[in-house]
Amino acid sequence: MEFKEIVLEHSDTVVERWLNQLDNGALNEYSSTISHEMIEQINREFADLIILSLKSDAKNLKELDEFAEKIVNLGWPFGYITEGLQQFRSISIRFILEKTNKESKSFFIEVMDGVNKWIDPLKVRLLNEYSSNWNNIISLQKMALEELSAPLIPVMDEITIMPLVGMIDTDRAKMIMENLLNGVVKQRTDVVLIDITGVPVVDTMVAHHIIQAAEAVRLLGATCILVGIRPEIAQTIVNLGIDLSQFQTKSSLQKGFQTALQITGKSIHSDNQEQEDIEAIIGAIEKE
What we know:
Layout: H1 3-9, H2 11-21, H3 36-55, H4 62-74, H5 79-100, H6 105-149, E1 153-156, E2 159-165, H7 170-186, E3 191-198, H8 204-219, E4 223-227, H9 231-239, E5 248-250, H10 253-264, H11 273-287
Parallel strand pairs: 2-3, 3-4, 4-5
Antiparallel strand pairs: 1-2
């Protein structure tokens, strides 16, 4: 009888041993947020999947992909998979040795090699799918963070606002430039208000990137207004000898928006719902 057949014939016993002896060490730091019932449920699914892989070719088993995706979505580490398979491997080897009642060194090596032949492909498939799903999630999160870190918000026709929050490094400056230029073209913007109220430090590098962005916007035929110039920021700019004279600056977003209205020849009426909407948007941005 082949080693795989021994495990399949006594799969209930092997699985119960595995579940009873399973040490979810990889989940220790998650124990406060994962219920015991959830861990038991996933362990049972894992066991059923391992047995199913013994009956089929692990390379063509779509259930492996689904399980790996589930583990990623749960936020569990890949150590859960590797530890689980390693323990299943050990239990299977011990069980086969018990059933065959052979203890020679050569037979032990033969059993170990036999078990590895169907555990290793399963491990490779699960870890590859885990890594693929994890990388996809990281990429999506990175894209979402990039969009949130440099949003271009249309306030009304031809006027948009880009509120910046946090430190600006070279990589983020490139992303700001891309979002800004793409947004200006896509939204047919005439005036962009770059709000730096939430930028804690404006040094030479940050000012250089802002100047580049303003110049790029100008080349597209639009006007850039820098708003949110706090007194300490203004003093820093002067002390650093940074020249921001080529585009307009305003102390607040409200004042910048009024200038944008003048540039575009627009106006809003006090009884207009549009004014309330615009003031709500500006108010929300100023509170960030």
